[in-house]
Amino acid sequence: MSRFTSFVIFGEMRTGSNFLEMNLNRLAGFHCYGEAFNPYLLGNHTNDTLCGFTAAQRDENPLGLLAAMRAQTEGLSGFRYFHDHDPRILDAVLDDPTCAKIILTRNPVESFISWKIARETDQWRLMNTRRHTTMQPSFDIAQFERHLENIQDFQLLLLNRLQISGQTAFYLDYEDILNVDVLNGVAAFLGLKDRLRNIDTTLKKQNPEALEDKVTNPQEMAAALARLDRFNLTRTPNFEPRRNAGVLQYVGLDSPALLFMPVAGAPWGSVAAWLKSAGAVSRDFDRKALRKWKEARPGFRSFTVLRHPLARAHAMFCLFLSSPLQPELRPYLAKFHYLPLPPQGESFASDDAFRSAFLTFLNFLKRNLAGQTGLKVLTQFASQTAILQGFAAIGLPDSIIREADLPRDLGRIAADLGLPAPQIAPDAPDPVYPSLMRIYGPDLDAAARAAYDKDYTGFGFGPWQ
């Protein structure tokens, strides 16, 4: 007896999904309803209704159609699903271990060119080769890159969701669908008893020519494809954990409504003080209180402030030295990461000693953010990129301001809201420790970039000045 009660075929346009459906539908106990959740058609181009549902009724109640398909079919029922079909149905099938997953893929260049030809000729299915029409499209690299990104993102989503839920899928390539033994393997995977004796070739391959013969600009296509990073060599692995939104630190000017969403280690005190001088403020938010604050103030503005990664690391190092973020952190860093620190409450013997300790601290940050230490990534050590991604859980700020541009850019926001121009002094350096100006060198910038490359690259930071 099959462990599955239904199925879904994940594919894309021009991957051979019509051919696969036609052949598998010859199996007893298997019925595929086509592209049942394609927003532009209802299973296929000829249907007005499907299992008693019109297209409008399906759009109103997609889960109802899913249930109707399963109820009206003996054996296994299912449909074909592409990346741009109704997203509301995706969770229902991915989260259901009794719904078998069949994943059909094809060389994305071939599927892209086939799609271009089909669109230009309006010939999407070929059953009689005497009626075959074709043409040579021009290969558009920008259009192909968008096509490739959509397919890859969707395939990664499927893989990740199946891994998380402990499910497996039956994978097929375009060439596999002509192999009767492979299709019978699909039947075995589904738990069906019936088997195919042959392949029904009523549907014909539309464009059997070599790829270079299908386009008008094969040399340009080859050059464009050669520069694509097929193996994702330029991807930077990200081991930094996701952050929450940190709403407890938000400060809201009640009227006119202006919300400050601070980044740990970036300017905070001087900005909060300016807001407080401008009127009544709300603080100590939780998510519920923040939502109520926003709902009561339609049209509110919001902003955050970024600091150069090296300056931010210096500020956090000084804070760590003067008031440890965690009592156990100081001995941990000294013992396991060889951070040369003076006794608690004492200063460094010289600027060089402080500088050496700061450089060791930067190297620790690199390992910490890469998941190479036993210490979780504290919010104060997190990249500004990760912190802003955490903001997205409750809403990104309208404006992202750099510390160097704070008086000018915050002044524009203040003028828009009718507030007095902000008088914001730069944060005063800790007098106990050397300023960044006194110890700066290119090696410190290089160490900060190694730790916070996402911030340098993502926000365009250059060397500290």
What's the structural blueprint in terms of helices and strands?
Blueprint: E1 6-10, H1 17-24, E2 30-32, E3 49-50, E4 53-54, H2 55-60, H3 62-71, E5 76-81, H4 90-94, E6 99-105, H5 108-121, H6 141-165, E7 170-173, H7 180-190, H8 218-226, E8 251-253, E9 258-260, H9 269-278, E10 281-282, H10 287-295, E11 301-306, H11 309-322, H12 329-336, H13 351-369, H14 384-391, E12 399-402, H15 406-417, H16 436-439, H17 442-451, H18 453-459
Parallel strand pairs: 1-5, 1-6, 2-5, 6-7, 9-11, 11-12
Antiparallel strand pairs: 3-4, 8-9, 8-10
Helix pairs in contact: 13-17, 17-18
Overall 3D form: elongated
Task: Give a quick account of the main beta sheet: strands, pairing sense, barrel closure.
Answer: 5 strands, parallel
- Class of the largest domain, according to the CATH hierarchy? Alpha Beta
Number of helical runs?
18
Number of strands: 12
